Fold:
Amino acid sequence: MPLTPATADYFAEPRSARLTAWGNSLLVGHTPPDQVVEEVVGSDERHRVVGLPGDAEGEQHALSWAIGRLRVLGVKGLRLALPSEGHPLGLTGPAEFNLAAMTAGEAVLAVGLPVGFVPEIDAYGPPGDQSVTVLWRCWEVRDAPPADVPSLHEAERELVDGLREATELLARLDVAGAGPEALRALEQYRRRGHSKLLAPGYPPRAVRVLESARQVSALLAIAADGHGAAVSAGEMAARTAVLAPLRRTARRAQVAAYNALVDERPE
Structure:
C-alpha cells in the first residue's frame, strides 16, 4: 500500500540533499559526472542552473556544465541546509539568501566559493501524472560557519536519545489507536531499500547517522499524522510541543550526515 501523500513527502529526500551528496562524491573523485546528474535529477524532467558568477542575466546551464564550472571557480565541496521557521539550520546569510532558503525549506552552499543554491520547483500536469522541472538559482552568501550544524559524533549521540523518546512518545500518544494506516506506513518505510543512502565516498558513520535520523523522522511523521488518543485542541498543542525538539534533532543529524565529506575527517 502506498504511503499517504503527507507521509511520502515527509520521507522524500530533499533535492538539495541529493545535490550535496552526489556533488561531493564527484568532487572527491568517486562518481562520474553523468551518474551524478542522473542521481540528482531522478524522476524530474530536467534541472537547470542560473546566476553563476560571470553569467549574463537569465543565462541558464545544464546541471553537468554548472558543476564543472563550479570546480573551475574553486568549489571544493557542498554543504546542505535544511532551514525551517525560526531555525536557520545550515545557513550563513545574508538575509535575502536566508529568506529564499527558508521559503524553499532547503539550500546548498558551496565550499571554496561564497555562493549558495536554492531550488525553484515547477510541477505541471494532472495529479498523478505531473512533470517537474527544477531551476537552481545561485546567490551570493557570507563566508561564515553554517548555523547550528552538529558534528557527526554529537548528532549520533543526540539520535540515540531521540529514537528512545520518539518510540516512547508513540506509546504515550496512542498513535496506534488512530488505526492501521500509520503503522502500515512505518512498516513500508522500514522495508524500503536504502542501497543508495548517501553516495560513494561517505564514511560509514555518516550513513549510520542518516539512517537513524530518517527512522526518527518516520516515527515523528506517524505521531504527527495520526490523532491517536489526543482529541482535544490542548492535547494536540501539547503533542506539537513535544514533537518539535525531536524533529529539530533529526534535521540537524541529516545535515551533519550529508555534510560529512566536507566537515569530517575520514574515520
Summary: Residues 1-9 have pLDDT under 50 and may be disordered. Strands lie at 46-50, 60-62, 77-81, 107-111, 115-124, 131-140.
